[in-house]
Amino acid sequence: MLPTGAHLLLIRLSALGDILFSLEALASLKEERPDIKIDFLVEDRFAELLKGHPHIDTLLIYPRRNKLAIPRSLLRLLRHRYDAILDLHGNLKSAMHVAFARSRHKLGFAAPRAREGAQRFYSQAVELPRQGSHRAEHGLYLLRALGLEGVPSRPVLPIFDEPTGEADGAIILHPGTSAWASFKRWPARNFAELAQRLMARNLRVAISYGPGEEHLADQIQTAAPGSKKIDGARIGLAQLPSVYARCRLLVGADTGPLHIAAATGTPVVALFGPKDPASYAPRGEHHRIIFADVPCRPCTRRRCPSPQCVLGLSVDEVERTVLDALS
Fold first, then answer.
1. Looking at the domain assignment, is residue 150 inside a domain?
2. Which residue segment(s) compose the domain that 268 sits in?
3. How far apart are CA 106 and CA 146, in angstroms?
4. Structural element, H or E, at residue 229
5. Same domain? 11 vs 128
6. pLDDT tops 60 at residue 15
7. pTM above 0.85, yes or no
8. Which residues neighbour 138 within 8 Å (Cβ) at sequence distance 6 or greater?
9. Residue 139's domain is classified under what CATH number?
């Protein structure tokens, strides 16, 4: 049992979607034990999203983009003795932080959820169900192993005033994904046709995009003059939840911005490809998840020469789903 005012360290370094999923365990922990002090360790490229988070007392940043600062980052963990450490990431990089941090209770996942031998660094490796559990629920198993109830709780994201107003009441189309997952993208020409159809119904359309994706937004805007572009890099990760919270609906692939929108309570239409929605779907009952039901999905491939699971989605089907979600 954790003592009153216990001090915990939670580790989830990346990626954007998984960090958002980890916030459910954070919300559950803080709801059940508001007296607990929580440090949260995250990579530098995602830290802006969590700055000012009401459930995090100290945000610790892993300097992935500054290799020379990594040893200092690891040594910093020796300053505190934690009542418990929860590794929500589960690979060798996160486990190295567990090794440096001081605590008698170091909890993480058992294999196969733990990768690269990470489970060897834990005092308790927690077994997960072999199938059927969502990634967001995994952290709850660590809380239960710690003696808590681990009740599912809605995640919290800091929401700030959004300065541009371009997204107010709009349907946001997000055509991009991370570069390594580009095969999960629905073609920009399909997004362009969808934008045309929605604007023909007098619906406001905006296009959000991240670094290196402006060409996708330009292609859509050229086909649908009057749509607005939202530059995620200019707005910044800290402000992006505020933008998505003020839109009417977001349409995009299985990617971080889609899960940001879902976490703010905005309905989304998720164009899923290879991943299994049972594990990776946006959280909430008011979202729509669609995919082309081909025999090879779901799969765990990192690249595919012809991902029919997403390419097989027609503009007609996506339009129908968007209109159904709006109704």
1. no
2. 171-326
3. 10
4. strand 228-231
5. yes
6. yes
7. yes
8. 21, 25, 88, 109, 113, 128
9. 3.40.50.2000
